[in-house]
TrEMBL record:
Native organism: Christiangramia crocea
Family: Belongs to the polypeptide deformylase family.
Gene it is expressed from: def
Cofactors that this protein relies on: Fe(2+)
HAMAP family in the record: Pep_deformylase
Protein name: Peptide deformylase
GO biological process: translation
Positions annotated as active site in the UniProt record: 148
Record text on cofactor binding: Binds 1 Fe(2+) ion.
Alphabetical list of InterPro entries matching this protein: Peptide_deformylase, Peptide_deformylase_sf
Length: 196
């Protein structure tokens, strides 16, 4: 089932999410719905706060990035086979020299900006079967994980922008929160009702 994606301005996107256990109600169904929602919106990642739930859960499938012909074959393969669920994740380490990449977000449609992130991470998490993993990722996979991880920490990519960039996109963000935007996927706008 496709869920509405929560738009910029909703308080759930700014809250630090809570851990869950394997008895979380209808977890498998929620994960299935999140996959449906993400693919319907042509996303490469989706965090539970983006569907209105303040829990430490996100999923990624960065396969669309594998079509970039500038990437090495090894990285293209890694991107194609990286469909994963992260439950109660904890970033243990971020390493390397920060690099910029133009990021967007399903909760902030039509806004893309360069965000600086470190290229390598080590993360501890549980998968959908509640098996624990500690893994290292780099490049675009690491970036997608960092972006989604920020969501469960209550951080949006726009929070990482300079004050000048934030001022330049301020009216766009205000319009998104009011629902004054055309998107081809289901969204929930926090200020849309008040604006009418």
């Amino acid at each position: 089932m496709i869920l509405p994606i929560v738009a910029y301005g909703d308080p759930v996107l700014k809250k630090k999410a809570k851990e869950i256990d394997k008895d979380y109600p209808k977890l498998d169904e929620l994960i299935d719905n999140m996959w449906d929602t993400m693919y319907n919106a042509y996303g490469v990642g989706l965090a539970a706060p983006q569907v209105g739930l303040s829990i430490r859960l996100f999923l990624i499938d960065p396969a669309p990035f594998a079509e970039d012909e500038e990437l090495e074959e090894k990285e293209q393969e890694e991107l194609k086979n990286m469909r994963k669920v992260f439950i109660n994740p904890r970033v243990i380490e971020e390493e390397g020299e920060e690099w910029a990449f133009s990021e967007g977000c399903l909760s902030i449609p039509e806004v893309r900006e360069d965000v600086f992130r470190q290229p390598e991470i080590t993360i501890e998490y549980y998968d959908e079967k509640f098996e624990k993993h500690t893994e290292k990722y780099s490049g675009l996979v690491a970036r997608v994980i960092q972006h989604e991880y920020d969501h469960i920490e209550g951080i949006l990519f726009t929070d990482k922008l300079s004050s000048l960039k934030k001022r330049l996109i301020k009216s766009k963000l205000a319009n998104i929160s009011k629902g004054k935007i055309n998107v081809d996927y289901k969204m929930r706008f926090p200020l849309a009702k008040k604006a009418r």
